[in-house]
Amino acid sequence: MNVSSPRGVEVVLVREVTPELHSAAIQLVAELSSSAPSLRYDALEALVAHDAIDVFIAARDDDVIGMLTLATFPIPTGIRAWIEDVVVAAAARGSGAGMALVEAAVDRARELGARTVDLTSRPSREAANRLYQRAGFEQRDTNIYRLRL
Predict the structure, then answer these.
(1) Sheet holding 63-75, edge to edge
(2) What global pTM score does this model have?
(3) Distances (CA, A) of 147 to 69, 118, 124, 144
(4) Of 12, 70, 80, 125, which residue has the fewest beta carbons closer than 10 angstroms?
(5) Domains located in the chain, CATH noted
């Protein structure tokens, strides 16, 4: 699946990990979270190979400028889809890469039979929240709980 945006951003569903992709993913994950461990090559390969995971990258002029993970899985009430770890390189923000990634993930979730797509975003990520709202996401009246293991 390759999708192009009007600003020359191409979104690709990753099917194979290369050293160049791995290097770009390490940099993007570091921009996303200062507490996340460095992404190992074999861990990225496992993500890409996992049946319930789709990894998308956004590229412009052959440079990887963004990444998104879509998790889809069956539960008794239907197919669930979650967007996670959306990141666009600081130098490429405002390029349309974020919207292109989100649209590609939503299309893929629909293709896989999901009726909804969920995601979380901290209120402090104002630009990200605006992006999700522009993409049609609505804030839900729900609580998210986390148990640290």
Answers:
(1) 2-4, 10-13, 53-60, 63-75, 78-88
(2) 0.92
(3) 22, 19, 22, 10
(4) 125
(5) 2-134 (3.40.630.30)
